[in-house]
């Protein structure tokens, strides 16, 4: 099973890019973030014409998440994280696909630091931490995929000294990510590429992509059942170079039908 995550940065404005990549990469499952479209404006007809079923949570102008599945309809199991009933941001969606629980998420950016947006980010992380512990108790593979808006280590950011007080690299946020992983999750990209400088995001400004001045903020966290099946974890970096593309590149993993011979750890 090939599972991808892609912060599309506007599903309607970049629909042509999304469809082009879907045809090229042919993932079985895609978690999309930053739809930036209300529920009724999601381009479901175009997605279906490309051979995918979909579930989604829209939001006007901001946020928005979706799960696409090739040749079938995802079985929706959750919209939104528990723990803060008044939170109306569209940031978490969950579905079961061929026996795998897939949670697609868009964690808050949190800038500027300090401030209420940063506080909200830490609360959201705590809610994710609490709910993720419940997911680990399920007797099946679980994948948490999406834009986490955190660079876990200095290896994941170009010139880390410039990001010390940014909400994506603040020590509190990195510690929250580590605490989440330490529950028993495997960071798929780092499990297979422990020492490589790999990025998933390049800003539109300052010629960031040609200079490869990027960040790794899009992640896959796998439960032990899923991690045992992990065979590949890659970034479709070239997609970031397409005209009118998102500032993120698609990230994807492959899970084999049976556990791989070598157990990988985060």
Automatic annotation (TrEMBL):
Catalytic residues in the record: 106, 147, 248
Pfam families listed in its UniProt record: Exo_endo_phos (PF03372)
Site (Transition state stabilizer): 149
Signal peptide start and end residues: none
Name of this chain's protein: Putative exodeoxyribonuclease III protein
Required cofactor(s): Mg(2+); Mn(2+)
Keyword Nucleotide-binding belongs to the record: no
Record has Nucleotide-binding as a keyword: no
Annotated Endonuclease/exonuclease/phosphatase domain residues: 4-248
UniProt-listed PANTHER family: EXODEOXYRIBONUCLEASE III
GO molecular function: DNA binding; double-stranded DNA 3'-5' DNA exonuclease activity; endonuclease activity; metal ion binding
GO biological processes: DNA repair
Taxonomic superkingdom: Bacteria
Organism: Rhizobium grahamii CCGE 502
Similarity field: Belongs to the DNA repair enzymes AP/ExoA family.
Binding locations of Mg(2+): 7, 34, 147, 149, 247-248
Keywords linked to the UniProt accession: Hydrolase, Magnesium, Manganese, Metal-binding
Cofactor details (free text): Probably binds two magnesium or manganese ions per subunit.
Site residues (Important for catalytic activity), renumbered to this chain: 218
């Amino acid at each position: 099973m090939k599972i991808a995550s892609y912060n599309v940065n506007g599903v309607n404005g970049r629909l042509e890019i999304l469809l082009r990549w879907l045809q090229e990469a042919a993932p079985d499952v895609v978690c999309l973030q930053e739809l930036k479209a209300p529920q009724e404006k999601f381009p479901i007809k175009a997605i279906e014409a490309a051979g995918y079923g979909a579930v989604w949570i829209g939001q006007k102008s901001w946020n928005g998440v979706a799960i696409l599945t090739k040749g079938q309809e995802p079985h929706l199991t959750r919209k939104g994280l528990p723990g803060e009933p008044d939170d109306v941001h569209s940031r978490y969606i969950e579905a079961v696909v061929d026996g795998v629980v897939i949670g697609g998420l868009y964690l808050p950016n949190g800038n500027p630091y300090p401030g209420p947006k940063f506080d909200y980010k830490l609360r959201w992380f705590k809610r994710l931490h609490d709910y993720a512990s419940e997911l680990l108790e399920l007797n099946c593979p679980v994948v948490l995929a999406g834009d986490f808006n955190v660079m876990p280590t200095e290896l994941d950011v170009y010139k880390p000294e410039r990001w010390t007080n940014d909400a994506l690299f603040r020590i509190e946020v990195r510690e929250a990510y580590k605490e989440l992983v330490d529950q028993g999750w495997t960071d798929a990209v780092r499990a297979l590429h422990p020492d490589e400088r790999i990025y998933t995001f390049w800003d539109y400004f300052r010629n960031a992509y040609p200079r490869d001045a990027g960040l790794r903020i899009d992640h896959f966290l796998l439960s032990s059942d899923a991690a045992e099946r992990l065979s590949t974890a890659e970034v479709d970096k070239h997609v970031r170079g397409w005209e009118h593309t998102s500032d993120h590149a698609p990230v994807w993993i492959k899970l084999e039908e049976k556990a791989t011979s070598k157990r990988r750890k985060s």
